[in-house]
Amino acid sequence: xxxxxxxxxxxxxxxxxxxxxxxxxxxxxxxxxxxFCLRKDGYDIETIYKTNKNKEGExxxxxxxxxxxxx
Length: 71
Known about the structure:
This protein is of the alpha+beta class. The protein has three helices and three strands, in the order αβααββ. α1 (3-14) packs across α3.
């Protein structure tokens, strides 16, 4: 199974994914490219920007990719 397929399966099952999840679970270091390809394939994926503190106490911003559904 390709990394793209693994990320797609994750989105369908969990609804969202971050870069850290993609790296640690699927060894996918280029999540933005995978998301680009999934969007090109017709998946409606939005980027939600979040902020948090890292272990050094610095504020960081990261993106969470969320699969939009037709509920």
